[in-house]
């Protein structure tokens, strides 16, 4: 294989003096364009092809791992304020790579609700442990397992992310923190025909909110749709914050089948440890993902991963132009 040219000088030439935006527009279009162009010119052709066909090949893998991408070798201490886009001033190789690959497979996007909640106001979300969430089931928790789920499983399919990308800025030094993944085809094959029939024929209802103020948000979806050769499984982490504490409504047979489905997914799941420069890409329509519990010491050495969502193409709300910032239906 032909040796690749040194990456840092090329990066410096393209990005010197160009900041990564952290405002409500999520990220600079110029930054995304330059990152994409650099990735196209630097990556081997076979790697580019695997990435560009990832969301379009119905017989392809549900997960890809790219290891050893060149990122800044001396990142600052792990930040413990979620969404702090100034955490790496002048050191944005990981941001460039995760946005470039998101652009190779589709289009980078984010969600207005995440911006409003202060959960990473840009396209790139820093995932680090939060001292206030240690014992919570949350993306910034650590002591509790984040169960397998499909991101945005309970919302409109039009705006559900087609993929999520996770790049390592700093690996967990104890190697306890792993992203778990479960392929939906393998999950369906391991599920009994009777359970599959129930999960396909009766929709599950999720209720979010408080009975105290009679305020509920309701979502309803079939748990398995699509052909057996390429099923979509709407598996969800009902305890995750800030959504959290969803109550399930369905027949006893449906609830029991769903519980068995989730347990089977846990048994099939494979763990992926991400070191600095390692990139995990999950097809959000073909695999569930989660995270193991791990120990955080909050001394600047803890796991630091960045997340970007991608869609095959940009979409917009009715009557609005396509946008990188998606809105859930009110």
How much of the sequence lies in strands comes to 15-25%
From the alpha-carbon coordinates, what is the Rg to the nearest angstrom?
A: 20 Å
CATH topology: the name is: Double-stranded beta-helix
- Coarse shape: globular
| Overall residue-averaged pLDDT value | 87
Number of domains: 1
Please summarize the sheet with the most strands. Answer: 7 strands, mixed
Would you state the CATH class?
Answer: Alpha Beta
User: Helix content range of the residues, please?
Assistant: 10-25%
Counting DSSP H or I runs of 4 or more residues, the number of helices is 8
- What are the low-pLDDT stretches, counting only 5+ consecutive residues below 50? 22-27, 117-121
Assign the structural class, choosing from mainly alpha, mainly beta, alpha/beta, alpha+beta, or little secondary structure: alpha+beta
User: Total strand count, please?
Assistant: 16
Can you characterise this structure?
This protein is α+β, with helices and mostly antiparallel strands. The chain is built from 8 helices and 16 strands. The protein has helices at residues 7-15, 29-42, 45-52, 93-105, 112-116, 184-189, 193-201, 252-268; strands at 63-66, 107-111, 125-127, 146-149, 163-170, 179-183, 203-210, 215-222, 224-225, 232-233, 247-249, 270-272, 279-283, 287-291, 304-311, 325-326. The strands form 4 sheets. Strands 1, 2, 3, 5, 13, 15 and 16 form a 7-stranded mixed beta sheet that branches. Strands 4-14-6-12 form a 4-stranded antiparallel beta sheet. A hairpin with a 4-residue loop joins strand 7 and strand 8 (215-222). The longest helix has 17 residues, at 252-268. The relative contact order is 0.22. Mean pLDDT is 87; it is low at 22-27 and 117-121. GO terms for molecular function: iron ion binding; oxidoreductase activity.
């Amino acid at each position: 294989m032909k040796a690749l040219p040194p990456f840092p000088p090329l990066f410096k030439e393209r990005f010197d003096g160009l900041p990564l935006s952290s405002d409500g527009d999520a990220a600079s279009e110029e930054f995304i364009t330059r990152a994409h162009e650099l990735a196209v010119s630097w990556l081997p052709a076979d790697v580019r092809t695997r990435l560009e066909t990832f969301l379009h090949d119905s017989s392809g893998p549900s997960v890809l791992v790219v290891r050893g991408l060149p990122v800044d070798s001396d990142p600052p201490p792990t930040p413990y304020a979620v969404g702090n886009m100034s955490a790496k001033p002048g050191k944005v190789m990981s941001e460039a790579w995760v946005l470039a690959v998101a652009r190779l497979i589709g289009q980078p996007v984010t969600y207005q609700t995440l911006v409003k909640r202060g959960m990473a106001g840009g396209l790139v979300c820093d995932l680090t442990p939060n001292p206030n969430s240690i014992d919570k089931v949350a993306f910034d928790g650590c002591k509790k397992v984040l169960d397998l789920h499909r991101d945005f499983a309970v919302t409109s399919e039009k705006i559900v992310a087609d993929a999520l990308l996770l790049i390592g800025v700093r690996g967990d030094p104890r190697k306890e923190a792993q992203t778990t993944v479960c392929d939906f085809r393998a999950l369906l094959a391991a599920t009994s025909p009777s359970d599959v029939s129930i999960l396909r024929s009766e929709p599950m209802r999720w209720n979010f909110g408080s009975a105290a103020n009679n305020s509920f948000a309701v979502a309803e979806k079939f748990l398995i749709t699509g052909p057996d050769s390429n099923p979509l499984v709407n598996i969800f982490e009902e305890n995750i914050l800030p959504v959290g504490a969803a109550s399930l409504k369905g027949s006893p047979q449906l609830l029991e089948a769903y519980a068995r489905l989730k347990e089977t997914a846990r048994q099939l799941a494979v763990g992926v440890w991400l070191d600095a420069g390692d990139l995990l890409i999950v097809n959000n329509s073909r695999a569930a993902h989660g995270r193991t519990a791990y120990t955080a010491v909050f001394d600047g050495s803890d796991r630091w991963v960045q997340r970007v969502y991608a869609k095959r193409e940009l979409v917009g709300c009715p009557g609005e132009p396509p946008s990188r910032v998606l809105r859930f239906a009110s």
